[in-house]
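pasting for ref
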Amino acid sequence: MSGAGRGAWGWHPLDSRWAQRVVAAAGVRPGELVLDIGAGRGALTAPLVEAGARVLAVELHPGRADDLRRRFAADPVTVIRTDAADLRLPGRPFRVIASPPYGISTALLKRLLAPGSRLLSADLVLQRAVANRWIEGNAPGSGRWSRHYDLALGLRLPRKAFTPPPRVDSTVLTIRRR
């Protein structure tokens, strides 16, 4: 996929103003370890740094990963160029504040909520229909994770919060460890 453009990757970057709202609503505290999965050009990474987080920015696209390394070279940001499906989760407590590719939402959520995960909380920008399925308990493995995590719908994002606008509605799915 070398040289693939936005359309080939199905990429809909989050507007920086909306990214700031997502981070503000998440209540990040200085020093927290936060994963930004699908970091893109750093729309969420920048406000996470401003909030004092130590960020693991996960980005598969090689050009964007290189851009992130340059942009945040002087900040507490570690860029990891890998597919989210291959990401090893931290062995210590962490948070996730991300706008991951919609195509990996279910696999990512199953991974974050798996037994042994040290996830404290997550604020994920997802397709609204997917978030609703998880809230309603109609998602894979809901019997296991619902004992340990509370899920709720957070901020609703209009299609214009992304460039180009996706064809689906989006919302923040909030996950909190009990």
